[in-house]
Amino acid sequence: MKKDKIKAVGKMQDYIKRHLQDPITLYDLAQSCGFSPWHASRIFKELLGKPPFEYIRARRISQTQG
Length: 66
Fold this sequence. Notes:
Arc Repressor Mutant, subunit A
């Protein structure tokens, strides 16, 4: 089960990387990994320690500074 979560979060991170300049919804992230929006958000936070949109915001900020 843990492997499935890791794989799903990896898919969401890939989606974020590919669409960083586009609007991203929780539904988009959920679609990218095959989970419900609620479950996708929950496992993302569980494994990375922050909610998806906090992660996206940090990635966008670091990209503009780099």
